[in-house]
């Protein structure tokens, strides 16, 4: 009885951990894969729209990302910034660190449970003959669908709601381009593209897991017959 309860509990833990692993991994893509931003310097015509050179834009972005991900001193290259602007990035840094911590912890939990399951030390329970990651994929795939629908209706409003949730009571994310010049090279379209990349990653991983679980279930049913 105790072992049965333990296996069910660990299965639920696996489903939840895999959910957070998929989400945090997808969020990490536009953060840690910097060529995604570099490509948009040209495609979004940032040089023409801002009057800054490619090198100036890239340097400003790199310094901000180095601060957010590598804990180097904050800077924006040749671009000006205010204390309010810096404070917003300090708030972002907390969220970036949190995302990385959850990514690492969820990865370790998922890998550990898979290894223990393979060694038959524990058993990850199959509900309705579906592998646990089937249920993770169902839950996970709903999130980007809901967000994309809401964002497509009114992206500006969705952008405001996002900041209200993650930066409650703060307005320092409302940059004035004339004094916080970094926002000129981080246009709203760039953040929208980040959201699209994250959503595509979540959907792709979820569908892959969904298809694999369905195929495996069919094989089990055929073998039983």
Q: TL;DR?
A:
The protein has helices at 2-32, 35-43, 46-50, 54-70, 83-118, 132-153, 155-166, 188-224. It is an all-alpha fold and 225 residues long. The longest helix has 37 residues, at 188-224.
* Gap from first CA to last CA: 30 Å
Average predicted confidence as pLDDT = 89
Rg of Cα set: 21 Å
Class by SSE composition: mainly alpha
SSE ordering: HHHHHHHH
What is the helix fraction of residues, given as a range? over 70%
**Mass-distribution shape:** elongated
Give the strand content. under 5%
Q: Which assembly state applies to the chains in this document? A: single chain
Q: Can you count the helices? A: 8
Low-pLDDT sequence parts: none
Q: Give me the count of strands.
A: 0
Q: Please tell me the total number of domains.
A: 1
Major β-sheet profile:
none
How would you describe this structure to a colleague?
By secondary structure, the protein is mainly α. The protein has one domain. It is built from eight helices and no strands. The protein has helices at 2-32, 35-43, 46-50, 54-70, 83-118, 132-153, 155-166, 188-224. α1 crosses α5 and α4 (54-70) crosses α5.
Topology:
Layout lengths: L1 H31 L2 H9 L2 H5 L3 H17 L12 H36 L13 H22 L1 H12 L21 H37 L1
What are the defining features of this structure?
225 residues; mainly alpha; 8 helices; 75% helix; elongated
């Amino acid at each position: 009885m105790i072992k049965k309860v333990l296996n069910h509990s660990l299965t639920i833990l696996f489903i939840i951990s895999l959910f957070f692993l998929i989400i945090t991994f997808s969020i990490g893509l536009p953060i840690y894969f910097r060529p995604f931003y570099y490509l948009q310097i040209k495609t979004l015509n940032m040089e023409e729209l801002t009057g800054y050179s490619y090198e100036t834009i890239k340097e400003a972005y790199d310094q901000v990302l180095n601060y957010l991900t590598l804990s180097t001193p904050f800077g924006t290259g040749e671009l000006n910034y205010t204390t309010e602007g810096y404070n917003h990035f300090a708030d972002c840094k907390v969220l970036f660190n949190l995302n990385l911590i959850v990514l690492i912890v969820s990865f370790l939990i998922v890998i550990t449970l898979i290894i223990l399951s393979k060694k038959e030390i524990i058993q990850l329970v199959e509900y309705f003959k579906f592998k646990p990651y089937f249920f993770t994929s169902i839950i996970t795939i709903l999130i980007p669908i809901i967000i994309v629908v809401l964002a497509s209706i009114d992206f500006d409003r969705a952008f405001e709601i996002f900041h209200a949730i993650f930066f409650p009571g703060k307005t320092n994310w409302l940059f004035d381009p004339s004094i916080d010049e970094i926002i000129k090279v981080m246009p709203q379209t760039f953040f929208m593209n980040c959201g699209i990349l994250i959503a595509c990653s979540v959907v792709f991983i979820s569908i892959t897991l969904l298809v694999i679980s369905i195929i495996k279930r069919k094989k089990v049913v055929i073998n039983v017959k």
